[in-house]
Specification:
82% helix, mainly alpha, transmembrane, Lipid_II_flippase_MurJ/MviN
Length: 322
């Protein structure tokens, strides 16, 4: 489908397609060599998810459903922001490498990481603080009771921590692929799958966290994956401007902390004022908290003079102009 929708525009420039697999073509062979480990490497998160679901089958009834719903909610900011940004930044990284502009490569990579953290850190805080209201709004109906809301929100709270690592990995893996290295992410990915299985078994057998333990093991694994990938890529390209990334993340964390406090009190006020039973009240709860909290986050980020904020604004302007 992704290929088909591009055919009309491509035909306007006078190009014609002829389906042919030429194994003698050097470019095609290189693409296949890079593609296979690349696909597997990008599937690590999904592999871990399948593992989590299988282990959850050993827990109480409803655990699998709780994990599935919580994971889907966590994927929303990942898919909307992190994966979109990774797709946008990948061609730029490729261009810098092809021109041997490694300083520009590092600048672009750093901006990518800082921007994705600028977006996902507040998303993580929002999911953590609003875990119950969000799950209640999206899923509470019919047989999905308030007890189910609590279990699913518990899993979402632990899953939310992994949003940072999982989002950063989207950028870091593109950093590897742009230097024609798809094997390193694969090797690290296989290692983290083993770590995830081990942590799952430890939390399920040795703690009372239940679905929270499975979600927590997933989050810990994503951070390990992020750390190992970042460290390996930094060694390969002789540094990745880490200091400015750390400073930016610290500013995002401060802004998100202020936002989190406001969101907590706004949500509490809305629930006390309108209750939590009707969908209208639930929508007011979540919607008000997101709008007011988002305003606070951007205001604090502006006061901290975060360049990532302007980058996000400029990117959105370009999107709307199209």
């Amino acid at each position: 489908m992704n290929f088909a929708v591009q055919i009309p525009d491509f035909s306007k420039v006078g190009k014609r397609f002829r389906f042919k697999i030429d194994m003698k073509d050097e470019g095609f062979r290189q693409m296949m060599i890079l593609m296979v480990p690349g696909i597997i490497g990008l599937s690590v998160s999904q592999i871990n998810y399948v593992v989590n679901q299988n282990i959850a089958s050993q827990l109480d009834t409803g655990s699998i459903t709780a994990l599935r719903y919580a994971y889907r909610v966590m994927l929303l900011p990942l898919g909307i922001f992190a994966m979109s940004l990774a797709t946008t930044i990948f061609p730029k990284l490729n261009t810098h490498v092809s021109r041997n502009e490694m300083d520009e490569y590092k600048k672009t990579f750093s901006m990518g990481i800082r921007t994705v953290m600028f977006i996902t850190i507040p998303s993580m805080v929002g999911l953590l603080v609003l875990s119950s209201p969000i799950i209640r709004l999206l899923f509470k109906t019919g047989k999905f009771t308030e007890a189910d809301v609590k279990v699913t929100a518990f899993a979402l709270a632990f899953y939310s921590f992994g949003l940072l690592g999982q989002s950063a990995v989207q950028i870091i893996t593109r950093g590897f692929y742009s230097i024609k290295d798809t094997k390193t992410p694969l090797k690290i990915g296989v290692l983290t799958v083993a770590i995830n299985i081990t942590l799952n078994l430890i939390f399920v057998k040795s703690s009372s966290l239940a679905v929270g333990g499975i979600a927590l093991s997933h989050s810990i694994t994503t951070f390990i994956n992020m750390y190992l990938l970042y460290r390996s890529l930094s060694k390969k390209v002789n540094g990745l401007r880490t200091r400015e990334t750390v400073v930016s993340c610290a500013k995002s964390a401060v802004s998100a902390a202020a936002m989190g406090v406001v969101v907590y009190f706004v949500s509490g006020f809305m629930e006390a004022r309108f209750g939590i039973e009707s969908k209208t009240a639930q929508l007011l709860d979540v919607g008000s908290a997101i709008v007011i909290g988002g305003t606070v986050y951007f205001l604090v980020a502006y006061l901290l003079r975060m360049s990532e904020m302007q980058y996000v604004v400029d990117t959105l302007k370009k999107k709307f102009k199209k």
